[in-house]
Amino acid sequence: MLLEYLSDGSPDCPLIRLYRFTPEEAASLRDAVVELSDGRLQKVVVHELPYAKVIAGCQLTLCVSSFDQSVVQKDAYTFECRYIAETWDNVAGLLKPYAEGKGGHQWLSSGTGDAQLLLSFSGAW
Question: What is the CA radius of gyration of the chain?
Fold first, then answer.
């Protein structure tokens, strides 16, 4: 799974994209998001996952928050995606088709944060 921040180059930028992953990697990410939704985890450090390959120093942490903030930029290449548990449950549902090997892309953020969060098998959207 590649993790990359794109600051410009598209009307959808800035965005963070997770792409070129296997169904098994998507399933592992989904499992971690389920743990966020049910309270077993408070955060998932995506850039430290064993299958994550970081491009240009992008760092992404998924966090349980007391309210939905979407993606928050901490510094040039460091981001947190902050949602309440119920929203993480919705995100887990969005990840399910990728864990089953289906293609395409899916926006995982609400569009109100500092960047969009994109999941895409090919990297395209």
Answer: 13
